Amino acid sequence: MKKYVTLSLETHLFLGRIMKEHALFLQVSFPEKEKDFRQRADHFREEFEDGLRRAVQLADGVVSEALLASGEVVTEYTVKAECQTSKLTGISIDTQITEAEERLRSDCSNNLNREMIQAVRRLNHQMARALNGLIAFKEEILRQVTGCRLFTTNYPLLIEHILREAKLYRQVINELEHKGRISPAGIREMEVFWNQIMMEHAQFIRGLLDPTECDLISWTKLPLDFQILQV
User: Fold this and answer.
1) Any long-range contacts for 206-210 (C-beta under 8 Å, 24+ apart)?
2) pTM exceeding the 0.85 threshold for the entire prediction
3) Which one of 76, 143, 159, 177 is most buried, by most CB atoms within 10 A?
4) What is the Cα–Cα distance from 78 to 95, expressed in whole angstroms?
5) Mutual angle of helices 17-29 and 156-179, in 10-degree steps
6) How many CB atoms lie within 10 A of CB 154?
7) Residue 212, SS3 per DSSP
8) Half-sphere exposure of 201 toward its Cβ, with a 13 Å CA cutoff?
9) CA–CA distance, 41 with 23 (Å, rounded to integer)
10) Number of Cβ within a 10 Å radius of residue 115
11) Helix H segments across 65-113?
12) What is the pLDDT of residues 52-91, one digit of tens each?
């Protein structure tokens, strides 16, 4: 059960933040006339922000030192990036969550009891429900965009890209709930999955660069070598 608790919380710290940021990407990408889509994206952003806040509260003294040292949870730039994003978009971002993440301690708590396990299980179910809604929302957006019925500044591939990440998150939660761990085969699949994701990140960055930024464009070609790792 210790592995179940630790892996669940570490998954939420990493992927829960990604989901709330994806919802923000969607929210700011819609024109003003699409108030319904903007409000729905904001709802999911707040829902995952709430889940991440709860994960941080439960994770203190429980998660591994390796995770906290990896930069996967938070970096020295995260709060500054959130403040600037909030300033530019007018969307309120709770930086106190990030500040709490910066104070997280590792492997120093003896809170692994029935209450803790039940709290983690409730959080897993909460995030799984939120993911079901977010996945359906992203699928709807993708259908509308590719059917020329909805405008967004996001590429269709980016919408598909963040949809795949949400489905991976749901898959990991389901595996933890049914098996209490992530299988070796699942770990290998995730390695291949993230290679593909990182390659696409480079493609998105390249597509957003001014064509005159030759040096920056040349740097985006390096992550495309992730394709080779998947063979």
Assistant:
1) 207/155
2) yes
3) 159
4) 9
5) 150
6) 19
7) coil
8) 12
9) 5
10) 9
11) 65-70, 78-89, 95-102
12) 999 999 999 999 999 999 999 999 999 999 999 999 999 9
Whole-number pLDDT of residue 163: 96
- HSE-CB at 146 with a 13 A cutoff on CA atoms is 11
3 CB burial (10 A radius; 0-12, 13-18, 19+):
exposed
Contact 56, 104 (CB under 8 A): yes
Q: Is the dihedral of CA 175, 179, 185, 188 positive or negative?
A: positive
Residue type, 75: T
220 pLDDT band, cuts 50/70/90, is confident
Q: Which two tokens stand for residue 134?
A: 């977010």
Structure token digits, residue 174: 């389901």
pLDDT digits (tens, 9 = 90+) for 158-177: 999 999 999 999 999 999 99
Tokens for 204?
Answer: 């998105």
What are the tokens at 61? 């003294």
Q: What are phi and psi of 229, to 5 degrees?
A: -70, -15
